[in-house]
Design brief:
globular; 4 domains; mainly alpha; 485 residues; two-stranded antiparallel ribbon
Length: 485
């Protein structure tokens, strides 16, 4: 009697990807049609695909809809709240479309070389002897030109935007709010349109790849990647009277919010004539998302998080690095706060090797934070010295300690806060000024609440406080004028 196998083979990457797509599709169907309350969210069961990331964690067992939703990165919401329900559905649709597009995969249309054409051979022979590297660079330029020519020929006239041509009437029927909520959804529709299919076939023919001739069928995934890569090549090509490309890591963006950087990128696309409208800019920015620093892919970054300029940012990037070290595909399943907390969670009970991995994940974010704050000069990543690393670590530790102390002082009860303020005043005024000399601070406060109230007489509307009380309560931050008695 044969002995049954105890260890099933691990699913292939393609099977894992398809399994996750099926999980997304199941969850979307359930949320649309079966979940109308928190009870439904907890009681409705879904069986994950066996090859999906969740299916590998919970094999052969149904899970609650809420478990699947949180596993794939959706924030908790109340299905009975109409607005919250629509937001959750939009987020899931966006994740499904993004998962299917796979635009963040490492794919460059120029990396797969076609067989040399007669024209290529003639151009190469007309040049003086070239090294193999220079020959490859020249071939890449020739192929780039051919790809751009193919895209140009698909346009009805030279003044037509390529994105407008591909989108047809799609963009005119959508609001900018709809596009911002689910850019991947609409980008997917455009890249799979009939006109996009025709252009992709022309590109495959130009590249002399399988699928470019009549009757040859290429998988949808490859066709989509070819078109997306060709579009990025087109959009990166020189435009008349346009400035240099957008450098997201420029020091001009340090300390700005991620939202403002995205807006700056969209504005750049319009100013350089790569996008004909704000709507096009939203979709083009989504097309280039994989070219931006990887953390831009996290959907719920707080609008006020400063780029490279806070301890929270360092913790966030450390979490991003840890998640990607485990599995690059897992990043889309994390929410912002989960990534911020990840290093601290893993440090609890960690082995020496695991602590080293956490320190390594924190290294580059710490250096970038220190360069942003001016503690060390900005350098190429491989040019930082051991002295730079030690300076950055020391500065970050001191800053974190000061921040922790400030937060702790905010939470202490008033008597302790007064003691803390007294000690700081004694450091500022060591001879007892404002503590033992009896002087007070006065400020004019008009208690009139509105126009009908009788205003106080100025000679009788002063409030008197000790310097200690004002300092401890943070009233000096109001920037109001105080008088010394």
């Amino acid at each position: 009697m044969p002995i049954p196998a105890t260890n099933a083979p691990s699913p292939t990457p393609a099977q894992v990807h398809e399994g996750q797509r099926l999980d997304y599709a199941q969850l979307l169907y359930v949320l649309r049609n079966k979940v109308n309350s928190l009870t439904d969210l907890s009681c409705t069961l879904i069986t994950p695909d066996p090859a999906s990331p969740l299916g590998q964690e919970d094999p052969d067992s149904p899970v609650q809809a809420v478990r699947m939703a949180t596993f794939y990165g959706l924030a908790p919401w109340d299905p009975a709240d109409t607005k919250a329900r629509q937001t959750a559905l939009d987020q899931l649709e966006e994740r499904l479309a993004s998962h299917c597009l796979r635009l963040e995969d490492d794919f460059n249309i120029l990396d797969v070389k076609r067989h040399k054409t007669k024209q290529e051979q003639q151009i190469l022979q007309s040049h003086p002897p070239l090294s193999d590297l220079d020959k490859e660079k020249l071939r890449a330029r020739i192929i780039s030109r051919d790809i751009i020519d193919t895209l140009q020929k698909s346009l009805p006239n030279e003044n037509t935007s390529l994105f407008s041509h591909l989108a047809g009437d799609t963009l005119s029927t959508l609001s900018t709010e709809q596009l911002r909520a689910t850019p991947s959804v609409y980008l997917q529709k455009i890249l799979l349109s009939a006109e996009a299919e025709k252009i992709t076939t022309a590109l495959l023919s130009t590249l002399n790849w399988y699928g470019g001739n009549h009757g040859e069928q290429t998988c949808a995934h490859i066709r989509l990647k070819v078109l997306a890569s060709a579009l990025r090549l087109w959009l990166k090509s020189p435009v008349a009277d346009s400035p240099r490309g957008f450098d997201v890591q420029s020091s001009a963006h340090w300390g700005k919010s991620y939202r403002s950087i995205r807006q700056a990128f969209e504005s750049h696309l319009i100013e350089t004539k790569r996008a004909a409208s704000e709507k096009e800019a939203i979709l083009i920015a989504r097309l280039f998302l994989g070219q931006l620093p990887v953390e831009f892919q996290i959907h719920d970054i707080p609008p006020d998080l400063p780029y490279r300029a806070s301890v929270v940012w360092v913790n966030f990037l450390t979490g991003v690095n840890l998640a990607r070290a485990d599995d690059p595909g897992s990043l889309c399943r994390y929410r912002f706060q989960q990534l911020v907390n990840l290093a601290l969670q893993r440090a609890e009970g960690a082995t020496a090797e695991q602590l080293d991995n956490i320190a390594l994940a924190r290294l580059l974010p710490s250096l970038e934070w220190a360069a942003t704050q001016g503690f060390i000069p900005e350098k190429q990543h491989d040019a930082y010295t051991q002295a730079d690393i030690e300076t950055a670590a020391s500065a970050l530790d001191k800053h974190s300690d000061a921040l922790t102390k400030t937060i702790a002082e905010l939470d202490v009860p008033p008597p302790q806060r007064l003691d803390l303020a007294r000690r700081e005043i004694e450091e500022l005024f060591p001879v007892g000024i404002f503590i033992n000399d009896g002087r007070k601070l006065a400020r004019f406060d008009n208690p009139a609440a509105n126009a009908r109230d009788v205003p106080a007489l100025k000679d009788h509307a002063y409030t008197i406080h000790s310097f200690l009380e004002v300092y401890a309560s943070g009233k000096f931050n109001d920037r109001e004028k105080w008088f010394v008695t």
